[in-house]
């Protein structure tokens, strides 16, 4: 089984935009693509795990979300980076689904689909729900201080690694795993 970096999208991989609903508004956080590229060179899978309640709330359509993810894929490809998958929960927060973070459903589905061992993997995000989903799936966790991360840290949320951004988090993880 492989190990993976499970990556929250908004505020972790790309700049936080409240209910991002236009592909042209997606902007990668500086250093994010290069960090993923380095992890992939070292044999890590990279999988986006994202709550997208804007679909369930009717703010934008599933087709718009597909276009946003196509833009994400294109932006990463400009840096010679590919993802192993993108998993999105499009349900309304009140739907009670098992995929919406903090539930571990998306991580467990990705692990089964992609032959990933969550116990050898990391969930990286900017919200307590990202970290809780990772813990529930058996992953180690990293909190980035981009997006809502500084607020999450101030609220006392625990993570195995706390880093200023995704690039720094990935460096810490790769050093941790190499030790």
Task: Please give the structural blueprint.
Blueprint: E1 4-7, H1 32-41, E2 45-51, H2 53-56, H3 62-77, E3 85-89, H4 105-114, E4 122-125, H5 128-137, E5 140-144, H6 149-154, E6 161-163, H7 166-178
Parallel strand pairs: 1-2, 1-4, 2-3, 4-5, 5-6
List how many beta strands DSSP finds: 6
Q: What is the CATH top level name?
A: Alpha Beta
Structural class: alpha/beta
Please state the second-level CATH architecture. Answer: 3-Layer(aba) Sandwich
Whole-number mean pLDDT: 97
Tell me the number of structural domains.
1
CATH superfamily: HAD superfamily/HAD-like
- Tell me roughly what share of residues is in helical segments: 25-40%
CATH-defined topology? Rossmann fold
Tally of helical runs: 7
Q: Which segments are poorly predicted (pLDDT under 50) over 5 or more consecutive residues?
A: none
**Based on CA inertia axes, which overall geometry fits?**
globular
Return Rg in Å.
15 Å
Largest sheet: 6 strands, parallel
| Strand adjacency order, main sheet | 3-2-1-4-5-6
Order of helices and strands: EHEHHEHEHEHEH
Strand content: 15-25%
Termini separation: 20 Å
């Amino acid at each position: 089984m492989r190990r993976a970096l499970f990556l929250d999208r908004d505020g972790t991989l790309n700049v936080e935009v409240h209910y991002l609903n236009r592909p042209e508004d997606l902007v990668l956080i500086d250093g994010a693509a290069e960090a993923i590229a380095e992890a992939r060179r070292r044999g890590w899978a990279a999988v986006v795990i994202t709550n997208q309640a804007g679909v369930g709330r009717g703010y934008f359509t599933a087709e718009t979300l597909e276009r946003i993810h196509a833009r994400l894929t294109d932006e990463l490809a400009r840096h010679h980076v590919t993802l192993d998958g993108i998993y999105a929960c499009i349900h309304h927060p009140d739907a009670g689904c098992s995929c919406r973070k903090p539930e571990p459903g998306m991580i467990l589905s990705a692990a089964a689909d992609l032959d990933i061992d969550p116990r050898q993997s990391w969930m990286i995000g900017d919200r307590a729900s990202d970290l809780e989903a990772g813990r529930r799936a058996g992953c180690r966790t990293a909190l980035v201080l981009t997006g809502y991360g500084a607020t999450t840290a101030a609220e006392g949320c625990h993570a195995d690694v706390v880093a200023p951004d995704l690039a720094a988090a990935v460096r810490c993880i790769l050093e941790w795993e190499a030790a």
